[in-house]
Specification:
The chain is mainly α and 240 residues long. It has ten helices and no strands. It comes from Strombidium rassoulzadegani.
Length: 240
Protein backbone atom coordinates (compact mmCIF):
# COMPACT_ATOMS: atom_id res chain seq x y z
CA UNK A 1 0.00 0.00 0.00
CA UNK A 2 2.71 2.66 0.82
CA UNK A 3 4.45 1.99 -2.54
CA UNK A 4 1.18 2.37 -4.42
CA UNK A 5 0.46 5.68 -2.69
CA UNK A 6 3.90 7.02 -3.62
CA UNK A 7 3.30 6.01 -7.26
CA UNK A 8 -0.14 7.61 -7.10
CA UNK A 9 1.34 10.87 -5.86
CA UNK A 10 3.84 10.86 -8.74
CA UNK A 11 1.05 10.26 -11.27
CA UNK A 12 -0.90 13.20 -9.86
CA UNK A 13 2.21 15.38 -10.20
CA UNK A 14 2.50 14.21 -13.80
CA UNK A 15 -1.14 15.08 -14.51
CA UNK A 16 -0.69 18.50 -12.89
CA UNK A 17 2.25 19.29 -15.20
CA UNK A 18 0.73 17.99 -18.43
CA UNK A 19 -2.80 19.07 -17.63
CA UNK A 20 -5.94 16.97 -17.48
CA UNK A 21 -9.57 17.15 -18.49
CA UNK A 22 -11.52 19.75 -16.50
CA UNK A 23 -14.03 17.10 -15.54
CA UNK A 24 -11.40 14.72 -14.17
CA UNK A 25 -11.90 13.78 -10.53
CA UNK A 26 -10.13 11.12 -8.50
CA UNK A 27 -11.89 9.63 -5.49
CA UNK A 28 -9.76 7.67 -3.03
CA UNK A 29 -11.17 5.83 -0.01
CA UNK A 30 -9.18 4.30 2.82
CA UNK A 31 -9.40 2.84 6.28
CA UNK A 32 -7.51 4.81 8.96
CA UNK A 33 -3.80 4.56 8.16
CA UNK A 34 -0.55 6.25 9.20
CA UNK A 35 1.16 5.45 5.88
CA UNK A 36 -0.77 7.91 3.68
CA UNK A 37 1.75 10.47 2.33
CA UNK A 38 1.28 13.97 3.73
CA UNK A 39 1.61 15.48 0.26
CA UNK A 40 -1.29 13.39 -0.98
CA UNK A 41 -3.45 14.52 1.93
CA UNK A 42 -2.58 18.19 1.42
CA UNK A 43 -3.77 18.26 -2.17
CA UNK A 44 -7.07 16.52 -1.43
CA UNK A 45 -10.46 17.60 -0.17
CA UNK A 46 -10.81 15.30 2.82
CA UNK A 47 -14.06 13.78 4.04
CA UNK A 48 -14.32 11.47 7.02
CA UNK A 49 -17.05 9.03 7.93
CA UNK A 50 -17.01 8.86 11.71
CA UNK A 51 -18.64 5.88 13.41
CA UNK A 52 -21.79 6.79 15.34
CA UNK A 53 -21.59 7.16 19.11
CA UNK A 54 -24.21 5.60 21.34
CA UNK A 55 -26.69 2.76 21.06
CA UNK A 56 -29.45 4.86 19.48
CA UNK A 57 -27.19 6.28 16.76
CA UNK A 58 -25.75 2.85 16.04
CA UNK A 59 -29.27 1.46 15.76
CA UNK A 60 -30.23 4.18 13.29
CA UNK A 61 -27.06 3.64 11.26
CA UNK A 62 -27.59 -0.12 11.21
CA UNK A 63 -31.26 0.07 10.22
CA UNK A 64 -30.83 2.75 7.57
CA UNK A 65 -28.05 0.66 6.02
CA UNK A 66 -30.97 -1.17 4.40
CA UNK A 67 -33.12 0.55 1.79
CA UNK A 68 -36.84 1.12 2.18
CA UNK A 69 -37.55 -1.56 -0.42
CA UNK A 70 -35.36 -4.09 1.39
CA UNK A 71 -37.43 -3.62 4.54
CA UNK A 72 -40.99 -3.18 3.30
CA UNK A 73 -40.90 -5.94 0.68
CA UNK A 74 -40.05 -8.60 3.25
CA UNK A 75 -42.25 -10.96 5.19
CA UNK A 76 -43.31 -9.59 8.58
CA UNK A 77 -41.24 -12.22 10.41
CA UNK A 78 -38.13 -11.28 8.48
CA UNK A 79 -38.69 -7.58 9.23
CA UNK A 80 -39.02 -8.27 12.95
CA UNK A 81 -35.92 -10.46 13.10
CA UNK A 82 -33.97 -7.93 11.03
CA UNK A 83 -34.86 -5.19 13.53
CA UNK A 84 -33.59 -7.38 16.38
CA UNK A 85 -30.49 -8.14 14.34
CA UNK A 86 -29.80 -4.40 14.01
CA UNK A 87 -30.06 -4.10 17.80
CA UNK A 88 -27.73 -7.07 18.25
CA UNK A 89 -25.23 -5.50 15.82
CA UNK A 90 -25.37 -2.19 17.71
CA UNK A 91 -24.78 -3.89 21.05
CA UNK A 92 -21.80 -5.80 19.67
CA UNK A 93 -20.25 -2.51 18.54
CA UNK A 94 -21.11 -0.42 21.58
CA UNK A 95 -19.80 -2.89 24.16
CA UNK A 96 -16.30 -2.16 22.86
CA UNK A 97 -16.30 1.25 24.53
CA UNK A 98 -16.42 -0.40 27.97
CA UNK A 99 -12.99 -1.94 27.41
CA UNK A 100 -12.44 -5.32 29.08
CA UNK A 101 -15.81 -5.00 30.81
CA UNK A 102 -17.43 -5.10 27.38
CA UNK A 103 -15.24 -7.60 25.56
CA UNK A 104 -12.07 -9.33 26.68
CA UNK A 105 -10.53 -8.50 23.30
CA UNK A 106 -11.11 -5.89 20.61
CA UNK A 107 -13.04 -7.41 17.73
CA UNK A 108 -13.46 -5.86 14.26
CA UNK A 109 -17.24 -6.15 14.08
CA UNK A 110 -18.48 -4.11 11.12
CA UNK A 111 -21.45 -3.46 8.87
CA UNK A 112 -20.32 -6.32 6.64
CA UNK A 113 -21.30 -8.73 9.42
CA UNK A 114 -24.76 -7.16 9.54
CA UNK A 115 -25.13 -7.25 5.76
CA UNK A 116 -24.09 -10.89 5.48
CA UNK A 117 -26.33 -11.88 8.38
CA UNK A 118 -29.29 -10.16 6.71
CA UNK A 119 -28.60 -11.96 3.42
CA UNK A 120 -28.43 -15.31 5.21
CA UNK A 121 -31.61 -14.49 7.13
CA UNK A 122 -33.54 -13.66 3.96
CA UNK A 123 -32.31 -16.67 2.01
CA UNK A 124 -32.76 -19.08 4.90
CA UNK A 125 -36.30 -18.06 5.81
CA UNK A 126 -37.50 -17.74 2.22
CA UNK A 127 -36.45 -21.34 1.63
CA UNK A 128 -38.14 -22.52 4.83
CA UNK A 129 -41.49 -20.72 4.62
CA UNK A 130 -43.49 -23.92 4.03
CA UNK A 131 -43.12 -25.17 7.61
CA UNK A 132 -44.14 -21.84 9.14
CA UNK A 133 -41.68 -22.42 11.98
CA UNK A 134 -38.63 -20.23 12.38
CA UNK A 135 -35.40 -22.25 12.81
CA UNK A 136 -34.12 -20.18 15.73
CA UNK A 137 -31.28 -22.56 16.62
CA UNK A 138 -29.98 -22.46 13.06
CA UNK A 139 -30.12 -18.66 12.96
CA UNK A 140 -28.34 -18.34 16.30
CA UNK A 141 -25.61 -20.66 15.09
CA UNK A 142 -25.17 -18.73 11.83
CA UNK A 143 -25.06 -15.33 13.57
CA UNK A 144 -23.19 -16.33 16.72
CA UNK A 145 -20.71 -18.88 15.41
CA UNK A 146 -20.07 -17.84 11.81
CA UNK A 147 -20.92 -14.20 11.07
CA UNK A 148 -20.14 -12.34 14.30
CA UNK A 149 -18.69 -15.36 16.06
CA UNK A 150 -16.09 -15.69 13.34
CA UNK A 151 -14.30 -12.71 14.92
CA UNK A 152 -14.51 -13.99 18.50
CA UNK A 153 -11.60 -16.00 19.90
CA UNK A 154 -12.18 -15.70 23.66
CA UNK A 155 -14.41 -18.40 25.17
CA UNK A 156 -16.14 -16.05 27.62
CA UNK A 157 -16.85 -13.55 24.87
CA UNK A 158 -18.38 -16.34 22.82
CA UNK A 159 -20.62 -17.26 25.77
CA UNK A 160 -21.68 -13.61 26.06
CA UNK A 161 -22.50 -13.41 22.36
CA UNK A 162 -24.58 -16.58 22.66
CA UNK A 163 -26.42 -15.15 25.69
CA UNK A 164 -27.49 -12.10 23.69
CA UNK A 165 -28.75 -14.26 20.85
CA UNK A 166 -30.59 -16.59 23.24
CA UNK A 167 -32.34 -13.53 24.67
CA UNK A 168 -33.29 -12.18 21.23
CA UNK A 169 -33.82 -15.07 18.86
CA UNK A 170 -36.90 -16.88 20.12
CA UNK A 171 -40.66 -16.91 19.52
CA UNK A 172 -41.31 -14.05 21.97
CA UNK A 173 -39.56 -11.72 19.52
CA UNK A 174 -42.63 -11.90 17.28
CA UNK A 175 -44.79 -10.66 20.16
CA UNK A 176 -43.06 -7.31 20.78
CA UNK A 177 -40.46 -8.78 23.11
CA UNK A 178 -38.19 -6.78 25.39
CA UNK A 179 -34.81 -6.34 23.71
CA UNK A 180 -32.80 -5.12 26.70
CA UNK A 181 -31.48 -8.07 28.74
CA UNK A 182 -31.72 -8.54 32.52
CA UNK A 183 -33.78 -5.40 33.24
CA UNK A 184 -36.59 -6.89 35.31
CA UNK A 185 -37.69 -4.30 37.85
CA UNK A 186 -35.60 -1.51 36.32
CA UNK A 187 -37.04 1.72 34.89
CA UNK A 188 -35.81 1.12 31.35
CA UNK A 189 -37.25 -0.64 28.33
CA UNK A 190 -36.86 -0.99 24.58
CA UNK A 191 -39.21 -3.40 22.88
CA UNK A 192 -39.23 -4.85 19.40
CA UNK A 193 -42.06 -3.05 17.59
CA UNK A 194 -44.81 -4.68 15.55
CA UNK A 195 -44.22 -4.78 11.77
CA UNK A 196 -44.04 -1.12 10.75
CA UNK A 197 -43.31 0.89 7.67
CA UNK A 198 -39.69 1.92 7.10
CA UNK A 199 -40.28 5.41 8.49
CA UNK A 200 -42.14 4.07 11.52
CA UNK A 201 -39.24 1.80 12.43
CA UNK A 202 -36.86 4.76 12.38
CA UNK A 203 -39.31 6.81 14.44
CA UNK A 204 -39.53 3.95 16.96
CA UNK A 205 -35.74 3.96 17.35
CA UNK A 206 -35.70 7.73 17.74
CA UNK A 207 -38.49 7.95 20.32
CA UNK A 208 -38.30 4.67 22.23
CA UNK A 209 -34.60 3.89 22.51
CA UNK A 210 -33.57 5.44 25.87
CA UNK A 211 -30.56 7.54 26.69
CA UNK A 212 -27.18 5.88 27.09
CA UNK A 213 -26.93 3.57 30.08
CA UNK A 214 -24.99 0.35 30.78
CA UNK A 215 -28.33 -1.21 31.75
CA UNK A 216 -29.18 -1.38 28.05
CA UNK A 217 -26.38 -3.92 27.67
CA UNK A 218 -27.25 -5.92 30.75
CA UNK A 219 -24.31 -4.38 32.63
CA UNK A 220 -23.90 -2.80 36.07
CA UNK A 221 -24.47 1.00 36.15
CA UNK A 222 -20.86 1.51 37.28
CA UNK A 223 -19.54 -0.16 34.14
CA UNK A 224 -19.25 3.17 32.35
CA UNK A 225 -17.06 4.90 34.97
CA UNK A 226 -13.81 3.96 33.23
CA UNK A 227 -15.23 4.92 29.85
CA UNK A 228 -16.40 8.35 31.06
CA UNK A 229 -13.06 8.90 32.81
CA UNK A 230 -11.18 8.25 29.58
CA UNK A 231 -13.52 10.64 27.76
CA UNK A 232 -12.67 13.40 30.26
CA UNK A 233 -8.94 12.71 30.02
CA UNK A 234 -9.09 12.92 26.22
CA UNK A 235 -11.10 16.15 26.39
CA UNK A 236 -8.55 17.79 28.72
CA UNK A 237 -5.72 16.60 26.47
CA UNK A 238 -7.32 18.29 23.47
CA UNK A 239 -7.86 21.52 25.43
CA UNK A 240 -4.22 21.80 26.49
Amino acid sequence: MPRFLIDLEKKLDHFAIEGSNQGFRLFVSSDPSKSIPIGLCERCIKLTNEPPQGLKQNMKRAFTFFSKEEIEDRDVKIKTILFALCYFHSVMLERRKFGPKGWNMKYPFNVGDLRDSAIVLNNYLERNTSSGKIPWDDLKFLFGEIMYGGHIVDDWDRILCKAYLDNLMNDSLLEEAELFPFIEGRPISFKCPPPYSYEKYIEHIETECPQETPLAFGMHPNAEIDFRTQQCIELFRLLQ
